[in-house]
Write a structure and sequence with these properties.
alpha/beta; six-stranded mixed sheet; 6 strands; globular
């Protein structure tokens, strides 16, 4: 990502509605669909500046790695733990460990060799472990936001399932989320295109609006594992290694 994007994300991820809402939904997915167990070993692949690690620590013992040096420094300051360098698919630390759950939260779209990256993480999973992935959804929604964040692609349920299968996984479940705010996002992007606005999509809104958006987004946690929405701005998948891979 551009350097200013890293800096902005580090400053916003504790307060911005999108980061807050996504953490709530990820936690519910782990608790309801993955169920890794009280003593689970968790790994976040590409932890950024560490905004998810406190949430993950409530669910088990957590390790993490990150590519960007400044993000690693910020994550280490926040958590007090060592955050080693990692660069998927070629450099994956913790080769002596196997994890019950690996989280990859809006990381895969940044990696050109996505199949190879997934395959590399499979080597770090316990036999009955799970890889939990979130990615931006639908190529037709490609925007300036994707360009400034150095995305290679957006995914559909079919395309993510296909690349996961090629990397040696079976898809236990895959579903769209950030659905309730989908119409607002489409309208906002259309307005920006018409007016030529370059305001970042992840700019922090006014306090009251930030609270409203967080509550709307986080409300989707109640539907995890119960209702599968046909569309959304994001896509989540629970992947398990195939026994014969």
């Amino acid at each position: 990502m551009d350097r200013d994007v890293y800096v902005r994300m580090a400053a916003l991820e504790q307060a911005h509605w999108w980061f807050q809402g996504r953490r709530v939904i990820i936690a519910r997915v782990i608790e309801r669909l993955v169920r890794p167990g009280a003593e689970a070993k968790l790994l976040e692949a590409g932890c950024g500046s560490g905004g998810n690690l406190a949430m993950l620590k409530e669910l088990g013992h957590v390790e993490a790695f990150e590519f960007d040096e400044e993000a690693r420094r910020l994550a280490a300051e926040r958590t007090g733990q060592r955050i080693p360098h990692g660069a998927l698919p070629d450099v994956v630390p913790f080769d002596e460990k196997r994890f019950d759950l690996i989280g990859m939260f809006d990381v895969l779209e940044h990696i050109e060799a996505d199949q190879a990256a997934l395959a590399a993480l499979r080597e770090r999973l316990a036999h009955d472990g799970a890889l939990l992935v979130t990615v931006p959804a639908f190529p037709r929604l490609w925007s300036r936001h994707d360009e400034t964040h150095h995305h290679f692609r957006r995914y559909t349920r079919q395309s993510l399932t296909a690349v996961a299968k090629a990397a040696g996984y079976r898809c236990e479940t895959a579903f769209y989320f950030n659905t309730f705010l989908f119409p607002l996002a489409i309208a906002t992007r259309a307005a920006k295109a018409i007016t030529g606005s370059d305001t970042p999509d992840d700019a922090l809104p006014a306090g009251w609006l930030n609270t409203v958006l967080r509550r709307i987004f986080a409300a989707e946690r109640h539907f995890v594992g119960r209702v599968r929405f046909p569309f959304g701005l994001s896509l989540c998948a629970v992947l398990r290694p195939m026994e014969d891979a």
